[in-house]
Specification:
It holds the Pfam family Sulfotransfer_3. The protein is an alpha/beta fold. The protein is 54% helix and 11% strand. The protein is globular and about 70 Å long.
Length: 246
Amino acid sequence: MIRLIISAATGRSGSTLLQRICNARKETLIWGEHYGIIKDFANIYDNLVYFSEQSRNERTAFFDRNKDTGLWTANMTPELPYVEQAVINAVTAALDTLYGQFAEKHDIVGFKEVRYGERELRLLRKCYPDCPFLLLVRHPVPSWASAPTWYRDIDDFAGVWNERAGFYAEYARQDPNSLLIRYEDLVDRDPKTLKRLSEVTKVPVPDMIGVLSKKVGSFNPEPVTKEQREEIVTKCRPVMKTLLYR
């Protein structure tokens, strides 16, 4: 049932703005954040994969010996295809049920989140192979200025931004159903960005511009010192170049 997912590399990157743009279409319903619950499913998946691989010999010996109860089987776990399908079923059941409210009135239902990196997006892709992903990135300096208290320090922020923004850029090049969007191109109403976004979301460009013209819940960023800016740019420069940021 999930037919559109908005994922931002960090908070304060325009995910709510993009959510509002999508919801400008009457038949679309994009819900808000769910506090990153797919992280928990990704942990479940990793744990099950570990036990499945580690217990391979237990599993093989047990069934090769006609379920010999004299064998050690404490960690015996089904093979990987069953692990993967179990987690896929769990994720899709959770999300499709969670977002089932009002679903019958909309042909595009989805959500937006700001807490997902490679593990979570790859799991979501297994669950929804044809679902468009809108992957949002923003220049690291204003991203930091908008939400510095979300991180321990600049080093912590830079690590998160580099990992996720770098993955988003790479994944969008490889995955035909993912669209990378720079926040700056969105708010600057870049024609190419709006056109591509309109094709994916079915929201007419004039309706997008109407949403962009209205400020909702804007925050005043914290001042960034010259030293902070230099530190952020130095730590993020390789990924910034990939995204054509200066």
